[in-house]
C-alpha cells in the first residue's frame, strides 16, 4: 500500500509537467572592446527537485554577441538564471587569471515560454563587464 501511494504521488507531478523554455540575447564588452568567447550558462533555478541546466558551454562570438536558449520539463514555472563567467576585472592589477568573475541575472517570468522552442526573447542588451555589477562574485580561482 505504501509503495502504491509513493508511486502515485511521484507520478502525478510528472504527468502534469510541461516544457518551458527561455531565450536570451545580448552583447558583452570589456574595456571598450567586444568580450570574446565569454562563457555562459542558462539554468532553471531553485525548484523542489533542484536546479536544471538548460544550456551550458555557450560562448560569446568574436563580436561579443550571444544567443542562448534552452528548455526543461517542470511542474512549476521555471525561475531562469543566466550565469556569465568572465575575466574583465575593474581592477586588472589585483585580479588575474585563472580567476573569473561570476555574474548572475534573473530572467523575468514574462520571458519564460511554454513549449520547447522559446516564443519570446529576453533582450538583455549591452553589458560592460569592466564596470562593477550587482550580483557579481569572484569565482573559479585556483
TrEMBL record:
Gene3D superfamilies: 2.60.40.3330. It comes from Caenorhabditis remanei (Caenorhabditis vulgaris). Transmembrane segments: none annotated. One of its GO terms (cellular component) is cell surface. It comes from the Eukaryota. Keywords: Secreted, Signal. Belongs to the nematode transthyretin-like family. It is found in: Secreted. This is Uncharacterized protein.
Amino acid at each position: 500500500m505504501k509503495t502504491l501511494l509513493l508511486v502515485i504521488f511521484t507520478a502525478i507531478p510528472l504527468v502534469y509537467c510541461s516544457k518551458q523554455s527561455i531565450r536570451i540575447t545580448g552583447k558583452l564588452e570589456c574595456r571598450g572592446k567586444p568580450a570574446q568567447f565569454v562563457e555562459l550558462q542558462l539554468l532553471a533555478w531553485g525548484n523542489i527537485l533542484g536546479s536544471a541546466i538548460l544550456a551550458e558551454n555557450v560562448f560569446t562570438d568574436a563580436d561579443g554577441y550571444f544567443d542562448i536558449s534552452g528548455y526543461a520539463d517542470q511542474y512549476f514555472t521555471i525561475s531562469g538564471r543566466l550565469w556569465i563567467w568572465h575575466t574583465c576585472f575593474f581592477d586588472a592589477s589585483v585580479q588575474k587569471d585563472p580567476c573569473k568573475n561570476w555574474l548572475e541575472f534573473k530572467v523575468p517570468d514574462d520571458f519564460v515560454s511554454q513549449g520547447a522552442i522559446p516564443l519570446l526573447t529576453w533582450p538583455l542588451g549591452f553589458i560592460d563587464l569592466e564596470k562593477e555589477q550587482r550580483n557579481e562574485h569572484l569565482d573559479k580561482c585556483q
